[in-house]
Amino acid sequence: MIRGDQDHYNEILTIETKYGKRYIYRRRLDINYKNLIRHPCDLKRDFNESKFSQLKTYIEDMIKTT
Length: 66
Prior knowledge:
Elements: E1 8-16, E2 22-30, H1 33-38, H2 41-49, H3 51-65
Antiparallel strand pairs: 1-2
């Protein structure tokens, strides 16, 4: 498989409880390669602004404060 031959990126969030139970969540983030060539910074912005990424950041922040 050649890197970049897919039109999406999989975001993965893994949460492990103190009792050893693991929860894995995945979400597909579609990538428009034609737009990416013209505006490469948009990919980082799209990733950081995705609801899945924001949820991951929120959960990590909540874990740090408890």
